[in-house]
Design brief:
The protein has 506 residues and is of the alpha/beta class. It contains 16 helices and 26 strands. It has three domains: 180 residues, Rossmann fold (3-Layer(aba) Sandwich); 171 residues, ANL, N-terminal domain (Rossmann fold); 99 residues, 2-Layer Sandwich (GMP Synthetase, Chain A, domain 3), CATH 3.30.300.30. The structure holds methylmalonyl-coenzyme A (MCA) and adenosine monophosphate.
Length: 506
């Protein structure tokens, strides 16, 4: 059960059919399969073996996909990285994952050149740039590529296929090891649930460095034999025009994307006769957005629920009449969920508790963090940190109501306050900080910080602190609002009262 082998078998079935349309070119299933083989050859020549980690720091494009598939073909693990990460973040991911190879481009490499020189075991190779398809032989540092197919698929089942970094509860990100079994079982379950076939045309606007864009959308489409129209990044007007022009049948987005599409709806009003299914996930879809979207477009968005550590967990049914606002639906095939009290007791249907998850979708653990891995499992169940209840009147349909984990989700990106607090507190004028989320119409939630300075008369202002934070954190993690306080509100136990901060500033 190697994901790349399964996708290569699909490529034989779908052959010369268009698999991906990107940047003015069409790539057939066989084109992608051949490129994966060539890149696998390059990786082998670089000495990459089963279990090695290969980090991909590239703009959205075909090379990202080829290298990822090539990794899986030879048993290596992909470490996908957001090109917008700071040098500090990238250096940490490379060193924590112990990557043997970094595939990047010169422009992105410039920011990490110095800090990664100390990593003696890390090789770097450069693509031609801008996500365009450069043949592996054009990759600088590649050497002469042999004309042979080196794919032996030595990994499978519970072997790691990817390490996806999720924001960390204690400040530093944790690398979630996702196995071939996780990917294959979830891909098949989604295909069945969403009636995904070769007749589908998927418009892809999400980043490739996260589970949503790479695993759910791209793996799924390659397996189902559907055609992907891929945009470098999300642009609402271009998206609305493409839905009509390319006769798109399937679209996946986070709520912020749907919110922005509605903003431009009246001026564009695309003909959606070909459209079959709009899917939303990664963050809560408000009832208001669900209803406004239906009112304006005639489509009920199908909401599903997932997390990096468990891939996709639940989904609303395909039948639009069975899609309920506020509900994330039912467990996928092969996935079990239960709702537990804080004391670890299963609660009665209808009562709120933490969602626990079990099944082939659940990850192997955090890379090199056995303690953190043990902490997130309880008797074989993954504790999601999400709060919800199951409706006893509706076949135990799941509704999410909040989170027990201190997490901010902004536009589908996760941010743990601790990571932001650590960055702010690196400034020598800062005494302490408390980071919290406030509602935001566009992003769902926005990152905000209360800051206490060491000396009240310090000249440090919000602008200077924002610039300083940028050195350590990528843009979406940086506070959109900074509030300077004389002290932080604390309860009798001395714990900072973030709820009070939220009330003070909302
Ligand atoms: C961009 N910016 C943001 C965000 N995105 N700020 C807060 N929250 C965000 N989500 C900031 C940038 O730092 C930048 O500011 C400015 O906005 C413009 O950046 P740009 O790249 O042009 O942003 P955009 O195109 O407007 O992006 C909005 C977006 C994007 C399309 C909604 O955030 C996005 O693609 N989100 C999806 C993330 C995703 O795929 N999540 C799935 C995780 P400055 O210039 O100051 O730096 S996987 C997951 O959650 C599980 C498995 C699941 O269930 O799916
Ligand atoms: P990540 O760590 O990026 O994989 O994000 C996982 C988290 O996103 C989950 O634990 C949930 O808190 C949240 N999430 C994903 N899908 C949904 C959804 N449909 N509704 C509410 N929250 C969601």
């Amino acid at each position: 059960m190697n994901l790349a082998k399964i996708l290569s078998e699909s490529a034989v079935v779908f052959g010369e059919k268009a698999a991906v349309l990107f940047s003015g070119r069409t790539y057939s299933f066989l084109d992608i399969d051949r490129s994966a083989a060539q890149y696998a050859c390059l990786l082998k020549q670089k000495g990459i073996e089963k279990g090695d980690r290969v980090a991909i720091l590239l703009p959205k494009g075909m090379e990202f996909l080829f290298i990822h598939l090539a990794n899986l073909c030879i048993g290596a693990m992909t470490v996908p990285l957001n090109p917008a990460y700071t040098a500090d973040e990238i250096t940490y991911f490379l060193s924590d994952s112990g990557a043997s190879l970094l595939v990047t481009e010169q422009e992105l490499f410039a920011k990490i050149d110095m800090p990664i020189r100390k990593m003696k075991n890390l090789q770097t190779i450069f693509t031609n740039g801008k996500g365009q398809d450069s043949s592996p032989s054009l990759i600088s540092g590649a050497g002469k590529i042999k004309a042979e197919d080196p794919r032996d698929y030595p990994a499978g089942g519970d072997d790691g296929a990817m390490i996806c970094y999720t924001s960390g509860t204690t400040g530093r990100s944790k690398g979630a090891v996702i196995t071939h079994r996780n990917l294959v079982s979830n891909m098949k379950a989604l295909q069945e649930t969403w009636g995904w076939t070769e007749a589908d045309r998927l418009l892809h606007v999400l980043p490739l460095f996260h589970v949503h864009g790479l695993v759910v959308a791209m793996h799924g489409a390659l397996h189902a034999g559907s055609t992907v129209v891929m945009h470098e990044k999300f642009d609402p007007v271009r998206t609305l025009k493409t839905l009509e022009q390319e006769k798109i049948t399937l679209f996946m987005g986070v709520p912020t994307i749907y919110h922005r599409l509605l903003h431009h709806w009246e001026t564009e009003r695309p003909d959606l006769r070909a459209m079959r299914l709009f899917i939303s996930g990664s963050a809560p879809l408000s009832d208001h957005l669900f209803m406004e979207f239906e009112e304006k477009t005639g489509f009920r968005i199908l909401e599903r629920y997932g997390m990096t550590e468990a891939q996709m967990i639940t989904s609303n049914p395909l039948n639009p009449d069975r899609r309920a606002p506020g509900s994330v639906g039912y467990p996928l095939l092969g996935v079990s969920i239960k709702i537990f009290s804080p004391e670890g007791k299963a609660v009665k249907a209808g009562e709120v508790g933490e969602v626990w998850v079990k099944g082939d979708n659940v990850f192997k653990g955090y890379w090199n963090m056995p303690q953190k891995t043990a902490e997130c499992f309880q008797e074989g169940w993954l504790q999601s940190g999400d709060l919800g209840y199951q409706d006893p009147e509706d076949d135990l349909r799941l509704y999410l109501v909040g989170r027990s984990k201190e997490l901010i989700i902004s536009g589908g990106y996760n941010i743990y306050p601790k990571e932001v607090e650590s960055a702010l507190e690196k400034h020598r004028a800062v005494n302490e900080t408390a980071v919290f989320g406030l509602p935001d119409e566009d992003f769902g939630e926005k990152v905000c910080a209360a800051v206490v300075l060491k000396q009240e008369n310090s000249s440090l202002d919000a602008e200077e602190l924002a610039v300083f934070t940028r050195k350590y954190l990528t843009g979406y993690k940086c506070p959109k609002k900074l509030f300077f306080l004389k002290s932080l509100p604390r309860n009798a136990m001395g714990k900072i009262e973030k709820e009070r901060l939220r009330k003070m500033f909302s």
